[in-house]
Write a structure and sequence with these properties.
single chain; 422 residues; alpha/beta; Rossmann fold; 16 helices; 13% strand
């Protein structure tokens, strides 16, 4: 089966959606399928040079809405090469283009990537009002006509129905996954620490640290994590806090078009100043974005991964931490928290400062053996729940069902046209 994915940007700095598309398409060959991707990136963006699958970059575009005069003609000319199409995200020209060029001709799926979470309705009520006309004119119909609307958890699917009215779609839950890292964990940790020497003690031994890895963004609860760390810091004087990720639109290596697609705002400078005011500048570290061995070394080297987010339909970094056998300290707004908590691999708090403090306090109260046992449960949780190949297989299965239904309808229609026999 050949599947086309459509997404605004594949920039790694864009976070979960772009990373998940790359992983899904990379996983297709192992299950006998193929994938290609259409983006609105500038073809000259450096990050596209390292992509291992076929990408059609139709940018650059100059707005976050992603209007491109090339997209609909390209889809019309190429749609017959594919068995199905997956459009990623909402509130952009991508959905309109799929309605015009794909709807009624090929089955298509929509991955909402958390963009229907009611958090945004509460946090940005004016934006919600501004989006309502576009919902009625376009997004409602994009979702209604989709073969399936894909969510990454039951919680996300349930919450999505609370955002806009009217709404009508056929939902399927297809959990995200992550690819377990290859390579020797000790060597990966050494690679990371060699680039971040402040995380070593004077005797060369690594300092214990908690890790946040993702966009430095208010939605992620970065400010809450810093404040919570300040509350417990005096009780664990050697513990460090590492923020690894791009500072919103200040991310380097992107064209202006791809920066527009990210749609993030810088927060790092304010947090750096706050850490300094708290007297913690020497214990809070900023690595910038990490990729490859550096990223996996940061995961393997940490004690636990922290994500006190206000909204997270899945959280790719959560699955990656579990893949490295690292427990996670997360908020109850990370939609997969119940499953991980059930597996004994997480401490969970509310998405506020007291909630973050509670999760940190429970972690530092554990003994060394209890932390190790929680790490073992984290790895088992990953292996049983968050296999990326299962994600790719789920998408293929949805398309197989759509094709089977369509073939069955054709057979019934053809049989109805046959002349009666005596």
């Amino acid at each position: 089966m050949r599947i086309l994915h459509i997404i605004a940007t594949l920039a790694p700095q864009a976070g979960g959606p772009s990373n998940s598309v790359s992983r899904i398409v990379t996983a297709y060959p192992a299950i006998g399928s193929e994938g290609e991707v259409v983006t609105l990136d500038d073809p000259d963006d450096k990050f596209l040079r390292s992509v291992s699958f076929r990408v059609h970059a139709l940018g650059p575009v100059s707005t976050r809405f992603g209007f491109s005069t090339r997209l609909i003609p390209w889809l019309a000319a190429n749609r017959d090469r594919f068995d199905g199409v997956v459009v990623h995200g909402l509130w952009q020209y991508l959905g309109y283009a799929v309605r015009r060029a794909i709807d009624g001709r090929k089955p298509y799926l929509v991955f909402t990537h958390g963009m229907l979470d009611p958090y945004f309705k509460r946090a940005h009520p004016l934006k919600h009002i501004k989006k309502t006309p576009y919902w009625l004119l376009n997004e409602y119909w994009v979702l209604r006509n989709a073969q399936r609307v894909l969510f990454t958890s039951e919680a996300e699917a349930k919450n999505a129905a609370k955002s806009f009215w009217p709404h009508q779609w056929r939902a399927s839950v297809v959990p995200y996954g992550a690819t377990a890292p290859s390579g020797d964990p000790a060597a990966l940790v050494e690679s990371f620490l060699s680039q971040h020497r402040a995380l070593r003690k004077p005797n060369g031994q690594p300092r214990p640290y908690l890790l946040f890895l993702g966009r430095i963004h208010a939605k992620k609860g970065c400010d809450q994590l810093l404040e919570a760390f300040a509350k417990i810091a005096s009780r664990v004087p050697d513990l460090q806090l590492v923020f690894a990720g791009p500072d919103g639109a200040a991310a380097s290596g992107l064209s202006k078009a791809s920066v527009s697609n990210l749609g993030t705002a810088g927060l790092k400078s304010a947090l750096v100043a706050e850490a300094r005011r708290m007297g913690l500048a020497h214990r809070v570290h900023w690595t910038g974005m990490l990729e490859g061995d550096q990223k996996w070394g940061a995961f393997y080297g940490c004690e636990a991964f922290c994500l006190p987010s206000h909204q997270e339909n899945f959280g790719i970094a959560v699955a990656e931490a579990l893949a490295c056998g690292r427990p996670v300290l997360i908020s109850d707004k990370v939609d997969i928290w119940k499953e991980i908590l059930q597996d004994g691999a997480a401490f969970v708090g509310h998405d506020n400062v007291p909630g973050a403090i509670s999760a940190l306090e429970r972690w530092i109260a554990l003994s060394t053996s209890e932390k190790a046992a929680m790490g073992d449960r984290a790895l088992r949780c990953f292996r049983s729940r968050y296999d990326m190949q299962a994600n790719a297989s789920g998408i293929v299965e949805v398309f197989n069902q759509a094709i089977a239904v369509k073939s069955g309808n054709r057979a019934v229609h053809a049989e109805a046209k046959l002349p009666a026999t005596r």
